[in-house]
Write a structure and sequence with these properties.
339 residues; Rossmann fold; 12 strands; membrane; transmembrane helix; ABC_transpt-TYRBP-like; Peripla_BP_I
């Protein structure tokens, strides 16, 4: 008897609740349940990624994420590699739902800290030279980890930058390459050097390697790159060098050395030419992947994407400053010409 009375009371309360919900819905048809506020931590190592971050946020807005309403961003620009793990830990302490990264070291730091969590926080990278070599995914089509994103191809494209210098001036033989020292453990930077060495041998060039061990070394290394020693300069997928790319650009112009850099941003700053992804579009691609994950899809199942667009950018103002005249055929290949 007691169970029957309890059941009747429960049923009555449930019916009243349903009637109340229907009444409220009819009275306030536009009302909605409280929406989750997603927290996204953005971790950047290196310079020039501001454009990508802005593009990422704009695309997220298009996808329905309104900053201050249903999403918040904690953006960290970190120079020193050893500071990356602390930034990741702070993201996690804040209850971050997803970490968005730029550079191989930033992505590796996020993966190493999150992979042992009972439920690993998803990581979406917007720029990693080679995620397989970096060890953050197991396969491009099926990453198999809590990490996926958009590769920058910055390591593989190192060869193309050397080839462009050769096409522009076949007599160029000595090419300077500032790079993160191998003992620093930056896999993308080390692989970039290997690719550069292989390409230089094929083209009959000599690579002048200039190792950088800490951010503070960039100024001194840049000053060592002299026209009497180098006919050209390149940079690989190297966030430590990119962090002070302005110093290398200034030295290249001062010494009248053709500098083949990474992307549009670096050429806008004064590098002679660049070949790499349109990072604004890569930011948009990363936002779409983020949206899929926040809506419940596992990063382990989302294929790694390649940049939808690669750009050859040349800077005519820099060319005039250092006394370079681009061949017409070379100019016709350019996607962007900065006057």
């Amino acid at each position: 008897m007691t169970r029957r009375i309890s059941f009747l009371i429960f049923s009555s309360v449930a019916v009243l609740a349903i009637f109340a919900f229907v009444w409220l819905w009819n009275r306030y048809p536009n009302a909605s349940l409280p929406e989750k506020v997603y927290k996204v931590g953005i971790l950047v190592r290196g310079s020039g990624y501001e454009v990508a971050v802005d593009s990422y946020k704009r695309k997220m807005t298009e996808l329905g994420y309104r900053e201050g309403e249903n999403i918040s961003y904690d953006i960290r620009f970190v120079s020193a590699r050893e500071e990356l793990p602390r930034a990741v830990e702070e993201f996690l302490a804040e209850g971050t739902d997803l970490i968005h990264t730029y550079s191989t070291p930033a992505t590796q730091a996020a993966y190493e800290i999150t992979k042992t969590m009972p439920v690993p926080t998803p990581v979406v990278f917007g720029s990693v030279g080679d995620p397989l070599i970096a060890g953050v995914v197991r396969d491009f089509q099926h990453p198999g980890t809590n990490v996926t994103g958009v590769t920058s191809l910055s390591t593989e494209l190192t060869a193309r930058r050397l080839e462009l210098l050769y096409e522009m001036n076949p007599s160029a033989k000595r090419i300077a390459m500032p790079h993160t020292a191998p003992e620093n453990g930056d896999i993308a930077a080390t692989r970039s050097v290997e690719i550069a060495e292989e390409t230089a041998r094929r083209l009959g060039m000599k690579l002048i390697l200039l190792p950088v061990r800490a951010k503070e070394d960039n100024a001194a290394v840049a000053q060592r790159i002299m026209r009497q020693d180098a006919d050209g300069m390149i940079v690989g997928g190297d966030s430590l060098v990119w962090g002070d790319i302005d110093m290398y650009i200034a030295q290249a112009i001062r010494e009248k050395i053709p500098f083949a850099a990474f992307d549009l941003n670096q050429v806008q700053k004064g590098a002679l030419l660049g070949f790499g992804p349109d990072i604004a579009i890569s930011g948009e691609q990363s936002a779409v992947i983020t949206h899929q994950i926040l809506r419940g899809r596992s990063p382990a199942e989302i294929p790694v994407e390649v940049p939808r667009k690669l750009l050859l950018v040349i800077n005519q103002a820099t060319a005039r400053a250092i006394g370079i005249v681009f061949p017409d055929a070379f100019l016709q290949k350019a996607d962007v010409v900065i006057e």
